Amino acid sequence: MALSGRGQEASTAATSGSGIRRLWAQYSPWFAVEEYRSPPSACRITQVRLQRHGARFPTTGAGGRIQTAVAKLQAASAFADPRLSFLRNYTYNLGTEDLVPLGAAESFSAGKVAFKRYAHLVKPGQLPFVRASGSERVVLSATNWTAGFSLASHNVYSPKLSVIFSEEGNDTLDDSMCPSAGSSDAQTTQWLNTFYPAVTTRLNSAAQGANLTNTDTFNLLSLCPFDTAARNGGQSPFCGMFDAEDFRGFEYSGDLDKFYNTGYGQELGPVQGVGYINELIARLKRTPVVDHTQTNRTLDGDPATFPLDRAIYADFSHDNQMIAIYAAMGLFKQQRLLDPSQMDARASRTWVASRLVPFGARMVVEKLACGDGGKEFVRILVNDAVQPLDFCGGGEMCGLDAFVASQAFARNGGDGDFEKCFQ
């Protein structure tokens, strides 16, 4: 029996190209959503940034669930589809949580691109200021970025990682400071019970006696991107077990997870990005940080650990925190909540996890000086795509003062939401 009603040939074709990798939600390898566009010719960039860590192994919990699902498949009495035959000799050997070589390469490449794109902002005494949240994969992403930046400059400019935040304390680069925040479990479970049963039935028909659950199916789908990353980008045989429609459903699981975990669908999601926004405002305005939420006031109050005179700032974070920052700022605002009972297939939908927070995701805030008077503007790019600033007039550029004014939610400390994090 074929794994897909469309037949083996159709399934293999659907999962063999690079396009399938853009259906892996937050586990997609980094890609440019659009080709980078320089600002208008009358403008010059005077300051730039925020990045997610590169590709990693599964977390400890996810890895355990994946191994359970694989073991069920391998215990099947027979395989009715030849594409599962590799399981007879397969050994699960993925690590947990650490950066994989592909993730290191993603960050190294990002550092090279940053130098080439913004080399005019660099000079002796004006190296990028680099910070990272304390997880090892985030720290290694930061140091690989600095290595790429240095190499691109022929080792003339070699920035260092200057600040590593403990994730046990105040940290604007990690979503660990809102204990009362809810989760996305209700919405992702509803989608799991809506979309996955048909896929699970198909797999159980192909692996007789496996008795997979819908949760197992989700975890096997996630093994495709994780195993591919561990193979340094060589496609995992697990990918061939599924077709493009399966991965579209998997992607929507990620969309729902990010939206309802720290995004607009979570009451206490956006407030988790407030501290970072206030740090961004301080850098743009070159004034001290004003914040009483997630910031480490000792570090942010010291010019050695929070300088205001740099042209390039590189901060390394996690996907959930980047989503909170997008939501705190007003990026990717949705007109309605994402529906956990059916996929929103509109081509115009902007909340797509692979485009927002793939491995190595990048949000770049460019400060611009335009015209003879040098009027200051802000432009924001996410994975190289220039964002419409709907919260600031709707154009692709916003006056610096207008941008700061648009960030009232952050400047007001989350309008009381931060206090709710501890109630």
How would you sum up this structure, described in words?
- It is globular, with a radius of gyration of 22 Å.
- The chain has 2 domains: 1-30 and 62-96 and 183-249, no CATH class; 41-56 and 98-181 and 262-335 and 348-423, Rossmann fold.
- The chain is α/β, with parallel strands linked by helices and 423 residues long.
- It has helices at residues 8-16, 60-74, 101-118, 136-152, 185-206, 214-230, 244-261, 274-285, 297-300, 319-329, 353-356, 400-406, 408-411, 417-420; strands at 43-47, 50-52, 78-79, 129-133, 161-165, 207-208, 313-317, 362-370, 375-382, 385-386, 398-399.
- The strands form 2 sheets. Strands 1, 2, 4, 5, 7, 8, 9, 10 and 11 form a 9-stranded mixed sheet that branches. It has a two-stranded antiparallel ribbon with strand order 3-6.
- The N and C termini lie far apart (54 Å).
- It is found in: Secreted.
- Keywords: Disulfide bond, Glycoprotein, Hydrolase, Secreted.
- Monomer.
Main beta sheet: 9 strands, mixed
Query: How large is the radius of gyration?
Result: 22 Å
Number of strands: 11
Counting helices, strands and paired strands, the structural category is alpha/beta
Number of domains: 2
GO molecular function: acid phosphatase activity; inositol hexakisphosphate 3-phosphatase activity
Subunit structure: Monomer.
Main location: secreted
Keywords: Disulfide bond, Glycoprotein, Hydrolase, Secreted
